[in-house]
Structure prediction request, 795 residues.
Amino acid sequence: MFDVIFLQFLNGLDKGAAYALIALGLTLVFGTLGVVNFAHGALFMLGAFCAVTVRMLLTMETVTIDPEQLSPWGSPLEIREPLVQAWLGDFGAVLVNYSVPLSILITIPIMLLVGIALERGIIKHFYKRPHAEQILVTFGLAIVAQEVIKSVFGPNPIPQPMPTDLRGAADIGAFLGMQANIITYPIWRLIYFVFAAVVIGGVFAFLQFTTFGMVVRAGMADRETVGLLGINIDRRFTIMFGLAAVVAGMAGVMYTPLLPPNYHLGMDFLVLSFVVVVVGGMGSLPGAVAAGFLLGILQSFASMNQVKAIVPGIDQIIIYLVAVIILLVRPRGLFGRRGVMEA
Amino acid sequence: MTLSTRGPTRRRVLQTGMAGIIGSGIAPMIFTKGAWAQEFCNNPTGDTVTFGLNLPLTGTYAEEGADEQKAYELAIAHLNGEGDGGLLNVLQPSALKGNGILGKKVAFVSSDSQTKSDVARAGATRMIERDGAIMITGGSSSGEAIAVQGLCQEMGVIFMAGLTHSNDTTGKDKRRYGFRHFFNAYQSGIGLAPVLGQEYGSDRVAYHLTADYTWGWTQEESMKNATEALGWQTAAAVRTPLGATDYSQYLTPILNSGADVLILNHYGLDMVNSLTQAVQFGMRDRQANGKDFQIVTPLISELMAKGAGESVKGIFGTSNWHWNLQDAGSQAFTKSFGAAYGSPPSQAAHTAYVQALLYADAVERAGTFYPPEVIKALEGHEFDGMGNGPTIYRAEDHQCIKKVLVVQGNESPTSEFDVLNVVQEIDRDTVTYDPAIFGGDLGPAEPVPMCA
Prediction:
């Protein structure tokens, strides 16, 4: 039974890492700018499509017709030659194989620019407007983004293969000194978990141990006082919006081998990540991370056959059930601060 | 004093009224007796007739929907006498002339069903009421097929189902106005189980992951019955939501369930995701109960096999048709489709194309678009040359009875299309069953409801 529980726990950590990563950016924007950003899921989706674009560029082909050979339907055969491999040889093949992790390098500057442009161009005009209006405008932005992606890439999911070396499962049981092939877990999911942990740790370290982070935290606590000290807090908050976009984008890139992205990807995660943020406490970074992992693990255990035998269908509602219970017991969420989103 | 006789008397009014009612109501019926053929939904009066294509162009089964659309466009071109004629040249018997249907050019309208039953039903309603579709066809989900054929029964419009594999489509939910060329889950079980027994033995423990809707349920039931008859046990059967994307939470319990076979009752993108993730979890490298762990996908298509890539190699399933069959019909269709679109057709494309032709042929044989006459022409109709061998459109349940293919993921493909091998053709007699076992009632063909 230990192996079953351990596997479900690993699964929960993996799911929780994805939830936490998205919720982190969402609560970062809310905590700094006070904006309820419904376009955050769209930023996750845009990151995923950065990976799609990079792969499309790397797998461009030349097509030549060979009249000597025939296809199964009797037409002259099309010979397709990958362009990058033709130019760069084996190195080109390596680039194609590792297209997903390599996409991160392209995604970071693109998402930073997207985030800053979004904040300066639209979001800043809504700082002093009611939350309802912020939700409307950011939700509108999300719809625009997904329709643009739909028109460019089509409506259907586009699979992104993981590097061949990282396919398959790692024998964690054997690593822990147990019998082989009892506890195995997909390598890419382990990588995603480690990646999420590094990014979350990096964001916390950035806010905790840098002067920039200190000013931002001060601004989160009391924006007016920091402004009175002559510090341009608005510029820092703009950069924080860009940082949140980068975190969401990177999360999207690394998720593509697990889930082929389509234009609707952001919306699929948006609702869940809002539940995570609310359960964690609006504007609380530790709350978002804790709630992400908590809900991921609970969802995973709720999917066990033994649990579903007692409460059928519990795996589909567990997250919302826990959210209701936590909000009843702690109306501000797990780590919510007094005065945030309260009239 | 005398009574005035000016103006109508009460008796006169009653007499005149009765005469009027009789004259306007009954007399026309006497004169138009036998003119029933003109009184039905979307009776085509111009020089064109419109097909309504209800296709899942987005959602879980979008790949199949896109391929069906290509097939319908090709079928309509061939019916109108364009292109190389495709299967018109090999259908036996055939009343098709390549000049449209009953001399009317075939046109089409289409609607994206989004792989959702309610959207499919709304789209079909729109195509019937607004666009004047004479016949609705398409779909890649049994949920959609059952919803749309129920609607078509209510509206008096024939529905030629696309890809639908649930036993219920021509079982408990069958309708007089609905017809299915595709095979069903019961036939998959009958066809696949002996091959599984031969390959994996009779001492196996199966674990089912099942798409939670009508098709998944009947697929699971059919596979359980067929494998348990072999001597296999069933460890568990777990339902997963249609369109689920992350199967990790459903896969981890399998590893320690005592099962040594995973049966994926999934289709389309669901199957691509669940199979790929099962392989990522190392299931194909595992040993359980002293045997190699196996994965089975009872219904599989070329599109899914292509999507699943390496994961599908060596995996068994069943198909309705395969482009690499060597009969004249399969070759003709593959040639036409490949020349038009640069890729071989899927089984979804094949069934869509055949359904369009069979409807047109039935109308030509009936000599009218009047649905009850077309239904009579389809019921019990025997034909050949469409790539499935001799086939009958069974009158009792509107299910086509024909051979079934057992296929296996190709271990060493020679091209991106060479993903499945046909390992066995199960003959028509073996997969024939008593239509009464699934119950249901076709309902009446007449009186014909009027759609608007």
The radius of gyration of chain B is 26 Å. The domain at 48-183+323-402 of chain B is CATH 3.40.50.2300 (Rossmann fold). Chain B has two domains: 48-183+323-402, 186-319. Chain B has a mean pLDDT of 90.
